[in-house]
Structures are given as structure tokens and as C-alpha cells.
Write a structure and sequence with these properties.
mainly alpha; two-stranded parallel sheet; 2 strands; 5% strand
Length: 85
Amino acid sequence: MEWEKTTQKKFEFMISKLPVFHRGLAQVFATKKAEENAQARGSHLVEEHDVISAFFSEAPKPFYSMMVRLLEHTGFDYKKYGFPK
């Protein structure tokens, strides 16, 4: 599935900031969920909202605060999409 270029760069940057032992799993789960979110919208393009929604739905609770800090640090404006819910 195709990704919006800016969103993909921010996603890759965010993944690179995760602890090494979390990167692989986070990338797999977040990518899969973001693409599912785009498909559910009837889109063939993954956009910022899809990625943010994926992180909020897939991040384990113990890592929630770290995820929020990383979203902010990497330029994802999760608040404009109504997160956290």
C-alpha cells in the first residue's frame, strides 16, 4: 500500500527513536494497523491519521506515555484528530 510521503518519513523517524528491542515489532504492528485503517476508510493511501490511530490502538499500556512523547517529538499532531480518546 502507498503511504503519503511526509507521513512515511515521520513514521520512520518515530520508529528509529524507539528502543532497539521494540523497533521490529512496533514497525510491523503499526504498519499493518495503519494500512488497515486506510483500507477501512476506502483509501489506497496511508495518511497521518491512520498512523496515529494505529499507534493509539496498538501500543501496550506500559509504553503509552513514551508513545505520546515520541508522537510529539516526531511531529505527529495527534490532538487535531481527537487523541487521546
